[in-house]
Task: inverse folding
């Protein structure tokens, strides 16, 4: 298995300093499944090429595997593509051979570490599940130009068709550390075969190597899932850390009033939202940012709601919700009414489309401005429920909290708290833009000067067709 990296930075021979490999020698690096040979076929000031030739020992591979590989055929553990293709073993070899460069260090020329350089990479054979589209989805957002050559199953028998093996050429201008971290993570993601070493520490590797680019990558969910080999719980934990900025940092809302009052206030809020949803005649409801599932519990107690879906970005909150709602113990008919999913309100998600109503209880204030702009589209443009109920703190009421200094917010993770005028300005603009009507209601006791603790907006679509359909199906 051959990986070739060519650099045309001037002088190109700087690459040998960056990779800490003397250009005059062949370096043999042992990895647990074989040997990586590192050598330079070309070194000049204009162009420098380094090769990593990975020689996998198939016997060592079988010995290392804890059980038989797959059940496709009896000899699969001896006869397979692993010695010949780029896979997680290539990542292991890159990490071992170029560890100093991957850690962003260069002893002799430290100033080179941060310099973006023009690179060309060739991976002689890489299996790609999903083909060209997947390669593009992975590498293009990182700025790579891609040249892919797909190989037939057997050139002697063209009728056998194409294989899933490609020669992949990539071009980009970036630092060597960036390049190596991209290859380290994305090679096994392309391959998507079983690795032998998936475990908790893989999350750490993924997060550590991907920390500078993965959180902003549009395919981060796909990358995480594949890298962690579809082990949902590991992938979810990793996603939660990647999305840290979007989460609250605490699983529960923590408003400022005294604790027991806080619970009571929150219950009132949830009841007000439930009542709105009942009144709207919604039969299917999605609770966006459902947290520990307090609203879901209220909804499940009402027969009107035939289907409820809770979505939250926080996996931990969802696990608490699952426990509190006793999902494992519900009778089948009840269990079918409810579902919990992990997802972020900042990405379009088909799973939240097609509901009669959506609720967002104390969620919007946890999002930054660009995220809020995304959320607005995702809900009102794409998911388009008939009714949307949103609650958020009323900032004017904060003056009534003794312990809260003027100008401070009720919760450390709140990105904003709006006055009634601000909330209404936002809501009116949305209603106008997406063809909804909106009414605003106070939740809790209303103070004549500053209003109520919580403010609520109830949006209803003006699209007659949806309204008619619901009218026609109502009472069936
Ligand atoms: N609605 C719940 C929880 C409110 S706390 C209740 O009233 O009890 C805010 C919730 O929003 C948290 O559970 C947090 O994880 C979730 N959240 C924050 N950003 C999110 C995002 N981008 N996508 C989905 N949920 C998000």
Result:
């Amino acid at each position: 298995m051959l990986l070739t990296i060519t650099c045309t930075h001037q002088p190109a021979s700087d690459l040998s300093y960056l990779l800490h490999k003397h250009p005059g020698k062949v370096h043999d690096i042992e990895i647990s499944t074989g040997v990586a040979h590192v050598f330079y076929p070309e070194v000049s000031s204009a162009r420098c090429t380094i090769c990593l030739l990975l020689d996998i020992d198939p016997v060592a591979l079988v010995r290392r595997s804890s059980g038989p590989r797959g059940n496709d055929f009896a000899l699969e553990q001896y006869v397979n593509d692993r010695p010949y293709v780029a896979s997680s073993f290539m990542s292991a070899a890159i990490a071992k051979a170029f560890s100093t460069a991957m850690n962003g260090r260069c002893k002799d020329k430290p100033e080179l570490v941060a310099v973006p350089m023009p690179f060309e990479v060739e991976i002689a054979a890489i299996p790609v599940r999903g083909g060209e589209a997947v390669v593009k989805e992975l590498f293009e957002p990182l700025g790579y130009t891609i040249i892919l050559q797909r190989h037939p199953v057997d050139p002697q028998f063209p009728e056998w068709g194409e294989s899933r093996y490609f020669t992949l050429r990539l071009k980009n201008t970036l630092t060597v550390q960036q390049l190596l971290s991209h290859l380290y993570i994305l090679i096994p993601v392309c391959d998507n075969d079983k690795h032998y070493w998936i475990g908790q520490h893989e999350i750490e590797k993924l997060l550590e190597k991907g920390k500078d680019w993965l959180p902003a990558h549009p395919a981060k969910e796909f990358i995480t899932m594949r890298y962690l080999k579809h082990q949902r719980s590991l992938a979810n934990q990793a996603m939660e850390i990647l999305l840290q900025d979007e989460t609250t940092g605490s699983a529960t809302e923590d408003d400022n009033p005294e604790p027991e009052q806080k619970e009571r206030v929150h219950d009132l809020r949830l009841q007000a939202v439930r009542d709105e949803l009942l009144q709207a005649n919604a039969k299917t409801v999605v609770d966006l940012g459902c947290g520990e599932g307090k609203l879901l519990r209220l909804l499940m107690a009402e027969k009107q709601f035939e289907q409820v879906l809770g979505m939250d970005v926080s996996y931990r909150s969802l696990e608490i919700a699952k426990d509190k709602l006793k999902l494992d113990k519900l009778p089948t008919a009840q269990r079918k009414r409810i579902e919990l999913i992990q997802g972020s309100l900042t990405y379009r998600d088909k799973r939240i489309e097609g509901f009669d109503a959506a609720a967002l209880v104390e969620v919007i204030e946890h999002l930054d401005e660009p995220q809020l702009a995304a959320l607005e589209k995702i809900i009102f443009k794409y998911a388009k429920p008939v009714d949307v109920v949103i609650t958020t703190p009323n900032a004017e009421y904060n003056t009534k909290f003794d312990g809260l200094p003027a100008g401070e917010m009720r919760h450390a993770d709140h990105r904003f708290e709006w006055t009634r005028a601000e909330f209404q300005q936002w809501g009116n603009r949305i209603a106008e833009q997406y063809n909804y009507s909106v009414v605003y209601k106070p939740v809790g006791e209303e103070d004549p000067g500053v209003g109520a603790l919580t403010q609520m907006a109830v949006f209803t679509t003006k699209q007659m067709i949806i309204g008619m359909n619901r009218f026609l199906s109502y009472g069936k």
Remarks:
- The radius of gyration is 28 Å.
- DSSP finds 16 helices and 14 strands in the chain.
